[in-house]
Specification:
71 residues, alpha+beta, Alpha-Beta Plaits, two-stranded antiparallel ribbon, two-stranded antiparallel sheet, 4 strands, 20% strand, globular
């Protein structure tokens, strides 16, 4: 059984680089539709995603906008 994980994205830090989308092997992160305070559209976690808590998204994020939690 794969470990379960969860990510929390700080919408105000995200600058829409999409490196986390490319890093996520589970396809758990998608482009956002709403703008943040700085005029970027931050990424969001896909509903019903299958996050394993691998933390590749958090490692790739140059703005440290993603926190990863594991069960």
């Amino acid at each position: 059984m794969a470990p379960k994980g969860m990510i929390v994205i700080d919408r105000n830090l995200c600058k829409e680089c999409h490196l986390c989308i490319q890093a996520c092997k589970q396809g758990n992160i998608r482009p956002g539709k709403e703008f943040n305070q700085k005029g970027y559209r931050p990424v969001e976690s896909a509903e019903g995603g299958k996050c394993t808590g691998c933390a590749l998204c958090g490692i790739m994020c140059p703005e440290v906008a993603i926190e990863v939690y594991r069960d």
